[in-house]
Design goal:
disordered N terminus, 8 helices, six-stranded mixed β-sheet, eight-stranded antiparallel β-sheet, alpha+beta, 19% helix, 25 strands
């Protein structure tokens, strides 16, 4: 019992890293994840026995560790990864949430989903093939989503005799490409997921490599969960008015702090109305506190009787985002039905959902060479492109580069509630300049905002 308590206390003090894996078909991504789980003792005995049994029934002598992650029957039968698989594991140094994303071109939207909350992306490359089209595609998606750390795992080094020049050439090519997209940090590691080289344990075959193993890097990479340094943002989720004998005049605004910190006495602005007030009190877990920070769920009370409702945003008076009805963004289209110019949609941003119309689709991004295909007219599933959206009501929207939380949004089909598109407001890549607005489509008489 004492051991369990100590383990629980240890986990409560460790940090959390969210990371995603990506790679082309047969680069060994699922095997790498399986090796991470296996060698870090994160696999239950019955799971391992099931994998060993399935491997033997296929005629394989060694257990196929890829079966630890490929959970769908179609994935196991075809030997590919189709959907995002989330895995949770922990070491004494850190807890992990892993998004194992598919490598196929037709599953680009799945990678966007998995990498959208990731602080690190592991991009796998087959040492025999080097940097291929899909590798560049994954680097571009990581750059678009502003993933701060990227690991290049050059896999199958055992099949190229653990040759340093092969690794060095691939690392140099990928690093130059990713850096040109604005990826801030790139770490290259030579591995063999099948043999276990440099995944959890250092390799005896590559004494020329003096860097960390994959797990060591995952455990030590700096993760900034200190959102208090970000622009403070509080999307209102619910208005609390008990109107009871005990609390006759209580009016509180409940929600989760998206970023930054709020203090009692601080001057704030309520958007989109622009009305100002000061914070009279903050209630957290039933108690009054002087300060609260992301990602705490709290109730904020204001000194003035201001009209505030669900979907409004509370921000510091001297650091409030601009309010706009014209949204320019990079989007990834995730629905099977296309997104077209002139289409009516709902735009969901934090707790606010408003009517909107797609005024223009200025370009579609060709991820192979990062060229822009001008005026495509529509986006289909897995397309990444630029859109201009006009909303019926003003939005307090940050640039995605400043805040992944308050700079992102969804476009939704108003007819059936289907998610159509995931959007990132502002410039595409970190090195790109903000493009000007595209030529607006003809106004729709009924939805002319």
């Amino acid at each position: 019992m004492t051991t369990h308590i100590q383990h629980a206390e240890q986990l409560s003090t460790t940090t959390l890293l969210r990371f995603a894996t990506a790679g082309s078909v047969d680069d060994g991504k699922s095997t790498l994840v399986g090796r991470l789980l296996h060698d870090s003792k994160s696999v239950l005995t019955d799971q391992l026995e099931a994998v060993e049994h399935a491997s033997r029934s296929r005629g394989q002598e060694a257990p196929d560790l890829a079966l630890l992650t490929d959970g769908l029957r179609a994935e196991r039968e075809q030997g590919i990864t189709i959907d995002v698989a989330y895995r949770y594991f922990a070491t004494p140094r850190r807890r992990f949430i892993l998004a194992d994303t598919p490598g196929h071109v037709q599953y680009t939207r799945n990678m966007v989903t998995g990498a959208s909350t990731a602080e690190l992306a592991v991009v796998l490359v087959d040492a025999r093939n080097g940097v291929v089209e899909q590798t560049r595609r994954h680097a571009a998606v990581a750059a678009l989503l502003r993933v701060p750390h990227v690991v290049l795992a050059v896999n199958k080094m055992d099949l190229v005799d653990y040759a340093e020049p092969v690794f060095a050439a691939i690392a140099e090519e990928f690093t130059a490409y990713a850096a040109s997209l604005g990826v801030p940090e790139i770490t290259a590691i030579p591995i063999s997921a099948l043999a276990g080289d440099n995944v959890v344990e250092p390799s005896a075959h590559m004494d020329w490599y003096g860097g960390p193993t994959v797990l060591e890097h995952l455990e030590t990479v700096p993760v900034s969960h200190d959102l208090t340094a970000c622009h403070a943002r509080f999307p209102v989720q619910y208005v609390i008015r008990p109107q009871t004998a005990e609390h006759p005049d209580y009016r509180g605004y409940a929600g989760q702090i998206a970023a930054g910190a709020f203090r009692v006495g601080e001057a704030v602005t309520v958007l989109p109305s622009g009305r100002t007030s000061t914070i009279a009190g903050i209630d957290a877990l039933g108690e009054s506190v002087d300060i609260a920070w992301a990602p705490q769920s709290v109730t904020i009370r204001l000194a003035d009787d201001v009209d505030v409702s669900r979907g409004d945003l509370i921000a510091p008076a001297d650091d409030a985002p601009a309010v706009t009805q014209d949204v320019e963004a990079t989007v990834c289209h995730v629905a099977d039905q296309p997104l077209s110019v002139g289409q009516r949609v709902l735009l969901k941003h934090t707790t606010r959902t408003v009517k909107a119309i797609v005024k223009d689709i200025p370009s579609r991004l060709t991820l192979d060479d990062l060229s822009q295909h001008p005026a495509p007219g529509q986006l289909v599933a897995n397309d990444i492109g630029r859109v201009v959206v006009r909303t019926a009501e003003p939005l307090a929207l940050d640039a995605y580069a400043d805040s992944r939380r308050t700079g992102s949004f969804l476009l939704i089909d108003p007819a059936d509630g289907t998610t159509l598109t995931a959007g990132m407001a502002g410039a595409s890549f970190a090195t790109a300049a903000e493009p000007g607005p595209g030529a607006a489509a003809a106004d729709d008489a009924e939805w002319d905002f």
